[in-house]
Write a structure and sequence with these properties.
Helix content of chain C: 55-70%
Distance between the termini of chain A: 38 Å
Strand order of the largest sheet of chain A: 1-2
Chains: A mainly alpha, B mainly alpha, C mainly alpha
Strand content of chain C: under 5%
Order of helices and strands of chain A: HHHHEEHHHHHHHHHHHHHHHHHH
Oligomer: heterotrimer
Number of helices of chain C: 4
Helix content of chain A: over 70%
Structural class of chain A: mainly alpha
Largest sheet of chain A: 2 strands, antiparallel
Number of domains of chain A: 1
Radius of gyration of chain C: 26 Å
């Protein structure tokens, strides 16, 4: 009786749906693609399905912007739309759109004629968007699973390559293993505070003494989320999976889910005022940076190299989590955006250059790229320079803000480790540039021209990389306001 | 109301030139490429001259904000440009010498492939260098700072088909990165404690702090970190190793970047940050010691080099050491004075060396030269002037600036002075050795033998082959005119800073006075506000008067004697008794080998740092984890493509379990740590 | 009722002990009271069904797994309907539409697997996709 009474009292209102509008739009487009996929002729309409997905993601961007005008809570305080969630919604949906652009040519060349590829990207984006706006741990878990399951499947889409299936299975098994940790952490947090709602947990932890159970809960949640962002010591899967998965998907899953998980981590670490945060983050950040960079030094496979580099970048990003909230949050947000731009760009180049079956992925294959395709080489160089952190690229300011935030929190040791690591990192990125420009091409054959869609994707990522490197002010300002929203 | 000088045009003009040549240069004729590059660089020089003309009418420092850049919270940095006496001097040197080297490059690079690329990079370099010089905050300065590093990387590796050139470029870049991070951490410290990176605000803060005499505090830390950055860019111990390798680049590049402008950026940065250094005596002392040691160390290496450009490279490192020494004894204007004269004579030396190399068809080994003075008299004459200038022969520019530094060094400590004089002697010796080996005696090279020539410079086989047939000849006029102008400047460039003891009035020191003395620690903080200057009477002469003019003249005499001694010794060894050097070398077997091999520093670094990291990474991570575990699994699964279940079983029995083990172990550690923190 | 935290769970403990006791009693009693006459058939691991010969790790058609998974999906859907039915009156029309949307989504999935040929068991797949 009482259950029924409550239910009738709390029917969702119209505004509630507005607050999950981007997710709804993405789901609907995903389902349309799913229905159309078996009906239409694959060989001819692959591109049409992609275009539909692109329209879907653009519609999601538009609805994010529209949604931004009416912030607030929805669905019994489980979803919160504020500048913070809008930032990540915008980032994730934009990543989705760009990744779809980079996929057109790739799918054609690899002869993967399966339309649900695009549907899965959209479904994944639904989960990621929801992660950034959910303020309730169980909902966050569900969103995390939606995004993870899509990426597990996407990782195995090069079905002719054993290495890709292997990547998918490994990612799936280890990923479920890690998600279980997160869920267990949620359960313990409920046990410790009697709630799974982030604001309530925050109040509870602030008001009295913190039970040990809460510490363990944070630890377990960190294990689960740390796995997803490939932070050491939970990074072991990354090189294998990135090497096996299709290149555009690696670009996708090294940026969008990471951004979403970092959003969750920001909520957990800063909004909840996670106890014991500092030591945990310190070690994980230092380990990730060091292991990632050292691992990358000797890689001959460019995808593997970028995989190790992404571990290292997760480390740099984690440095921000050890800083004070008012500096740490904006710098972490800025870093996710910058990293997304440069990494997707780099993988777009890799996916174009790889050719059928991703044959050309070793460093030697890249020799003389500068002569064979100056535009592609220039783009790759820009992204690599940004990954190094050279000024007037996004990577410079991203690192700059993160390290300066950490230093304001007196984390001198961590900053020094980070700075030494960035110096080491220059070596292996530069190795690629040297090969591209300063070695003779092994193969003088003409590269296929860069198609329009891929060109657009490269242009968007390159311009964003430079924009964030030249005029970081506006984005950073917005991120600072979001930090204010997050901390009230 | 201060006039708007459109300062932003000065760096942006070369950028436009670079963009034009970079994007459409491939389709332009050589004439058009040259016109674009020279026009935009020249326009920049004209702007600099215009600023100099209007300078007396400006409120100093003159600040122009182009556009807001970053406004995040209380932190603010703009695209803003800053002109005071110091940046004006740098501006004129960079644009002036830069323009001359641009002109010279026309002749030098005319027959090279990638002509447009060269000028594009050169203009790009000018853009970054001018941004560095004109920046009004450390952040913008850092952008220029990294940018010149990038441009230098591109230019060193210009002949990228040469493996040594490619790796030299990489080495330069990475060594510089190490220095840059010192710089960067210094910036973080400033943001943290001052909340700003704008020069005027930072200096205001710093000026209000007390001198850190006994304690090493914040300013000392910032100063030391800035010095790390400067040591990287300006090739000081222990980060100098990249500069000699950088000689793989085309000679005009060596002249512009690795002699006249970029490598002096460190000196400029320290002089710019003098307010901080003046309040951090420890940091200042480190600057002086590193400068002194570098000056001596590099000079000794220079003695035994046989590559004409390598000699000049070590000489550059040594001269930069002098500049750091000057800054380290708080004689910033003397350091900048030497920076300027050095830009003239060292730029000239490199260009002349380029002309020599050009004439003999790509040969760089001095042992294969000799007797060239009759064949290329103009090059010989200009190079002789530059050599006299760097050696400190009285009346030439280098004499005045070096003398000024030595005198100020003596006032700080006699040890600095002594090392400085010994270095001056060594400088004179190796420079005249270079002159005698190159120009005097008989020609020792083989004109008709192509193989030697091509081995030395494979990328330029075309011109050298052509020249081998024509024999040795003087360079075209377009190369000689810049030589002549620089020779003229090498002579008269020092006359604006003739110290009082020699009957001059040291106008240079007085001109820079407002920059360096306005904020000296003796002055009370409220006088440190920008725009307010200390009374101009208080110049170096004022400080020196108590020591007496006679003493100073005596010291001048000693350094002149050292220079002449070097000249005499070089003449004795390399002109009169050419067999003697080899006998000496044989007698000093071990020592000579050590010097000739640059004291094995490169090898030491390789063993100490590069090797362990790369090898460790290879053995532990690559062979151990990657190949042993991961690749083994991949091979297995590749065999089992047809049996998916099979490969699955392999993975599960193999490393997937170990992966899960890693995750579980990590989780265990994390949980244990958190339980420990929670129960503590 | 005593206010001890664990005391509140006393009934459950009693329940568990009773259950354990009962189970043990039945097994024990049948062992004590019953009489045994073993035959060859009775001693085999499975008295009825196939004779277990060979490796248990045989390969199955992937269809078995697909059907198993599909079963779980639609099973969960059905389970969802029960609590919904209980409060349907209170949810009014909103509940009706909401469930319609939900079933619609499940139907999209059903349509998809159908068209992809997952449900075709005979010989070559007639579906157009490559599942």
């Amino acid at each position: 009786m009482s259950l029924a009474f409550q239910a009738s009292q709390a029917l969702p209102r119209g505004t509630d749906y507005l607050r999950i509008l981007p997710e709804l739009v993405l789901s609907i487009f995903g389902m349309i693609i799913m229905v159309l996929d078996p009906v239409v002729d694959q060989r001819r309409n692959q591109k049409a399905l992609g275009t539909l997905a692109l329209i879907g993601s653009l519609a999601a961007i538009a609805s994010t912007l529209w949604q931004a005008r009416a912030p607030g809570l929805a669905f019994w305080n489980m979803v919160q739309v504020d500048t913070f969630s809008v930032f990540f919604h915008f980032l994730i949906t934009t990543i989705t759109a760009v990744v779809i652009l980079t996929s057109y040519e790739y799918m054609e060349v690899q002869q993967i004629r399966v339309g649900e590829y695009y549907a899965l990207i959209l479904f994944g984006a639904v989960g990621m968007c929801l992660m950034s706006s959910a303020v309730e741990l169980v909902l966050i878990f569900i969103a995390l699973e939606i995004s993870s399951i899509s990426t597990y499947i996407l990782a195995g889409f090069r079905r002719r390559a054993a290495i890709s299936s292997e990547a998918s299975i490994k990612y799936f098994l280890l990923g479920s293993f890690a998600t279980a940790f997160f869920l267990y952490g949620v359960a313990l947090m409920f046990g410790a505070t009697g709630s799974t709602s982030i604001p309530t947990i925050e109040q509870h932890l602030r008001s009295g003494s913190i039970p040990v159970l809460a510490y363990v809960a944070i630890a377990l949640m960190f294990v689960g989320l740390g796995f997803k962002v490939a932070a050491a010591p939970f990074h072991v899967w990354t090189p294998d999976v990135y090497e096996g998965a299709p290149a555009p998907i690696v670009g996708f899953m090294s940026t969008a889910p990471k951004a979403a998980v970092f959003a969750v981590l920001l909520r957990i670490m800063f909004q909840i005022h996670a106890p014991g945060r500092l030591g945990l983050i310190w070690v994980a950040a230092a380990l990730s940076m060091t292991l990632g960079n050292i691992g990358a030094l000797v890689q001959q496979n460019v995808k593997r190299l970028l995989a190790y580099s992404s571990i290292a970048h997760a480390g740099y990003l984690l440095v921000a989590f050890a800083a004070l909230p008012q500096n740490g949050i904006p710098s972490a947000m800025f870093y996710t955006a910058s990293y997304a731009a440069m990494n997707i760009g780099a993988f777009a180049v890799v996916s174009h250059f790889g050719g059928a079956g991703e044959r050309y992925v070793t460093l030697e294959d890249y020799s003389g790229l500068g002569r064979r395709s100056p535009v592609l080489a220039a783009a790759l160089t820009l992204f690599l320079l940004s990954l190094i952190g050279i000024p007037i690229t996004a990577g410079f300011f991203a690192k700059f803000y993160v390290f300066s935030a950490a230093l304001q929190a007196n984390l001198v040791g961590l900053v020094i480790i980070g700075v030494i690591n960035s110096a080491v990192a220059a070596y292996y990125y530069l190795r690629v540039i040297v090969v591209v420009y300063m070695h003779d091409p092994r193969d003088e054959s003409v590269l296929p021209a860069v198609p329009l869609e891929l060109g657009a994707a490269l242009a968007i990522t390159a311009l964003t990389t430079i924009y964030l490197g030249l005029l970081p002010g506006r984005v950073l300002d917005y991120a600072s306001r979001s930090a204010g929203d997050l901390l009230h | 109301m201060t006039p708007d000088l459109h300062l932003w045009l000065i760096p942006v003009l070369p950028l436009i030139g670079a963009a034009i040549n970079g994007f459409v240069g491939r389709r332009l004729t050589r004439q058009a490429i040259v016109t674009v590059a020279i026009a935009f660089c020249g326009a920049s020089f004209a702007m600099a001259l215009y600023v100099a003309l209007r300078f007396s009418g400006l409120a100093i420092p003159h600040l122009e904000t182009l556009a807001p850049w970053i406004r995040a919270g209380s932190f603010q940095a703009d695209f803003a440009f800053y002109v005071d006496q110091l940046s004006l001097v740098m501006l004129l040197v960079v644009t002036g010498v830069g323009l001359l080297i641009h002109i010279y490059s026309i002749g030098y690079m005319w027959e090279e492939g990638g002509f447009y690329r060269f000028f594009c990079y050169l203009n790009l370099f000018m853009f970054f260098m001018l941004t560095l010089v004109l920046a009004s905050n450390y952040l913008l300065m850092f952008i220029g700072w990294e940018g010149v590093g990038l441009a230098s990387y591109l230019l060193i590796g210009f002949w990228f088909t040469k493996d040594s050139a490619a790796s030299a470029g990489k080495k330069a870049f990475i060594v510089n990165r190490i220095g840059d991070f010192g710089f960067l951490i210094a910036l973080f410290l400033m943001i943290k404690h001052f909340g700003t990176l704008n020069f005027d605000r930072v200096f205001q803060f710093a000026a209000s702090m007390s001198v850190e005499n006994a304690t090493a505090g914040l300013l000392t830390a910032i100063g030391l970190l800035l010095m790390v950055g400067a040591a990287g860019k300006s090739a000081q111990i222990p980060l100098y190793v990249w500069l000699p390798d950088a000689m793989e680049g085309p000679t005009p590049v060596s002249a512009l970047i690795h002699a006249a402008t970029m490598v002096t950026a460190g000196v400029y940065m320290i002089a710019r940050s003098h307010v901080i250094f003046e309040r951090a005596p420890t940091a200042l002392m480190v600057v002086a010691i590193i400068g002194t040691l570098t000056a001596l160390f590099a000079a000794t290496i220079g003695i035994a080099q046989t590559d004409i450009k390598k000699v000049l490279a070590y000489s550059t490192i040594s001269q930069l050491g002098y500049m750091f020494l000057a800054c380290g004894v708080a004689a910033f204007s003397a350091g900048i004075f030497h920076l300027m004269t050095h830009a003239f004579f060292k730029g000239l030396l490199f260009l002349a060396a380029g002309s020599v190399i050009h004439a003999v068809g790509g040969e760089q080994d001095m042992r294969k030269m000799g007797g060239l003075w009759r064949k290329i008299p103009w090059t010989w004459a200009t190079m002789l002037i530059a050599t006299c200038a760097i050696a400190g022969i009285p009346g030439l520019s280098g004499f005045f600036s070096k003398d000024e530094i030595l005198w100020r060094a003596y006032q700080a400590s006699w040890a600095y002075w002594l090392v400085g004089v010994v270095t001056a002697f060594l400088t004179s010796f190796y420079m005249f050795r270079l002159m005698y080996m190159t120009f005097a005696g008989e020609y020792r090279g083989v004109t008709s033998d192509h193989s030697i020539v091509q081995e030395q410079a494979p990328a330029r086989s075309r011109p050298s082959a052509a020249q081998a047939h024509h024999g040795i000849h003087e360079s075209p006029r377009v190369m000689l005119i810049p030589l002549a102008i620089l020779a003229f400047l090498s002579i008269v460039g020092g006359w604006i800073g003739v110290p009082g003891s020699l009957g001059g009035s040291n106008r240079f020191d007085r001109f820079l006075g407002p920059v360096f003395r306005a904020t000296a620690p003796a002055v009370k903080p409220q006088h440190a506000a920008p725009g307010e200057t200390a009374p101009p009477e208080q110049t170096t002469e004022g400080l020196e008067s108590h020591t007496g003019r006679g003493t100073e003249l005596a010291f001048t005499g000693i350094s002149v004697f050292a220079a002449l001694l070097g000249l005499y010794l070089a003449r004795l060894l390399y002109l009169r008794r050419p067999a003697l050097p080899e006998r000496i070398a044989a007698a000093l077997n071990g020592l000579y080998a050590a010097v000739a091999n640059k004291y094995y520093v490169d090898e030491l670094y390789a063993t100490l740092f590069v090797h362990p990291v790369v090898e460790g990474s290879k053995h532990i991570l690559w062979h151990g984890m990657d190949q042993g575990v991961i690749d083994a699994t991949l091979d297995n699964s590749a065999d089992a493509t047809r049996h998916v279940s099979d490969s699955l079983r392999h993975m599960q029995s193999g490393n997937l379990r170990s992966y899960a083990g890693w995750v579980a172990a990590g989780a265990a550690v994390v949980i244990a740590y958190m339980v420990w923190t929670g129960t503590r | 009722m005593p206010d001890n935290y664990f005391a509140r769970y006393l009934p459950i403990l009693i329940h568990f002990s009773l259950a354990a006791l009962l189970a043990t009693a039945i097994v024990l009693l049948s062992w004590i009271i019953g009489y045994r006459r073993p035959t060859r058939a009775k001693l085999s691991p499975y008295e009825c069904g196939m004779t277990p010969v060979g490796d248990a790790r045989q390969r199955f058609s992937v269809k078995f797994y697909l059907v198993a998974m599909l079963f779980i999906l639609f099973d969960v859907e059905a389970v969802f309907l029960y609590p919904w039915a209980v409060i349907l009156r209170d949810l009014k029309m909103f509940g009706f539409w909401e469930m319609l949307v939900y079933i619609g989504i499940v139907l999209v999935g059903f349509f998809y697997i159908w068209k992809k040929g997952v449900l075709d068991w005979g010989g070559a797949s007639t579906g157009r996709g490559e599942v």
